[in-house]
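Suppose a classmate hands you a notebook page containing two proteins, each written out with its sequence and a corresponding row of structure tokens. How would you begin to make sense of it? This section walks through that situation. The first entry is reproduced here exactly as it would appear on such a page.
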Amino acid sequence: MKSKPLIHLSLYVFFLAGIASCTSNEEKADIMVDNFMKQHLHDPSSYKLIEYSHLDSLHSSFEATDEAAYMIDKMKQITDSAAFYADKVSTVYKAQKLIDDGQRILKSYKKKQAAFNSQFLGFTKTIKFRAKNDKGVWTRSYVTFRISPDYKRITIEDGDITIIDLFGSDVIKNNMAKD
């Protein structure tokens, strides 16, 4: 009878040890970010983390597609043209036609936006940090990283202008998110 509590206790300890040895997604991302910084900064030994953001999921959106950009550009052109024609009484008809075209494109845009099938692209994580730039001057900056869904690839999604002096243009060019 005393062996049952011992079995339960040993299973409990085994379970806790298994959980403790697992690395969370947040920790995996932190490790990837730290490794990236240590590999690519001009002066990796000067890297001082100020703050990590939480790991955030990244999904595709219709607004980020070429088709959406084209439609928005077309609507801006129509708006500008309609404003130009609306000032002249003789071209009110042209202005109204342009407005109708713009409304048709907007309606189509909203329909495509609602029907867009969003896809999971991975994760983002932003860090604020200090490091010495290529001239040895301490600089405060931030970088947002994109991390692949399988945690095998990390790229730069966004950052302020100082990252060029902190990493170098070749690092930025070779590690920017492409899509």
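The notebook's second entry, a different protein, reads as follows.
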Amino acid sequence: MKKLYSGIAVFALLTVIFFGVTAGGPFLQMIAGPQTAAADQSFEQMEGKYITYEVTRPVVSFAEEYYSGDPGRVSKVAYVTYDETRQAFLKIVTSERKSGKLDDLLRAVNRSEELKAQWGDEQAEAERPVPVSGSLTAIAEEGVVQTILEAMGSGDSFSIPEMNALAMGQKNWYVLEEDGISGIKVTNLWICAVAAGVALFAALLCLLFLCRKKDVAAGGYGSAWERLLEKQRVWLEPWCAQGCRRRVWQGFLFLAGAPAVMAALGIAVGADMISILTCHLPIGLAAGELCALMLAAGGGVFVPDKIIRILNKNMQRLALPQAEQEALAEELLETDAQWSVFEKGKEEIYYGILGERFWAVFSGRGILTVMDSRRLERMETVTVSGQIRVGKVRTHYHYYSIRAFYRDSPRKKDCDVLVNFNAENTAEEFMALARRRLGERAEEVIQEG
């Protein structure tokens, strides 16, 4: 799995660098908080800075953006406000949901003197400036400026001729989009930060794995049992190598596929390029890295040394006398391959071998099943199927069990030994070999399920 861990580490570090370049500066500005727009600074001097600007004299509002799935519904509203101190106009953009205060201010400051007098003390409260925080950006497109001038000259505008003349002569126009820094939404900056954090975490985990020391297998397999375990590498190692290659391929597929799918989703919903790069793409990158990490971690099951250690532990749990364990191993080492069964799957593998007395089934998950044919009283094959339901998801299972019962066993209901295979022909092959080994006893011991 070193190839997958190395790939994740490189991919994750590139992700951190990418978000550091694209969103690092705006994110640091957001963490530091907005600066208050100083009265002695021009818009040109504040360009690119994250500021809080107090809107005092909006003159017109118009729809800035509509929802992609609902062209008749406004998602963003633009306001043109007059800055008396700087003798200039500024475009303010905010979401439709947050436009209430600016709408109230627009109506309040543009009331007639007679109406203002009628409002009395409430008028001063209604004219209270509305603070808007965001990044000040220059407007480069002539079409955007033309839209502003047309809105100021429309019937819905409260702009007076002197203001229109001043706007026509304004050379540099700026826009302040609320909750946006350098064109990136604050929520998207947090998404980028989380994605970068996930990438950094993934890179560190992978580097720790790559730097850890490997366990050195002990040499000198003196006992028969140790030699029998070592012999299982013949089928374990090719299966483990194939499983690792499959996990590596799936991991790289997640690394590339998840970001591609999320980017395509952003394009499908009509998101702009900045939103795709700072929202959809980071979600896809984080998801791909986490999925690849889980696959890499799960690849630990495809390690022959680890499987052999588990098989050895499971033999110790059987608590067989040392002499009997060695006798079992000696017999199975001398047993010819014609007395073996083999079942290979993507996630599991079984190797069974039937000696004259002892029968054993080794599993790729480290499960070891040992059967003493001399003690057999009854054997049967059972087909097991059903489903497991987790919420609304149903998972079906189907496998074949060989149940063995010993003579004079204290068990009353459960069998003494249970062997499971996923394929019916493997179970049938095992039972056919068992019949041959049992000879005349087969009719008495083996019962048709």
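A careful reader of the second entry would note: The first helix runs from residue 2 to 32.
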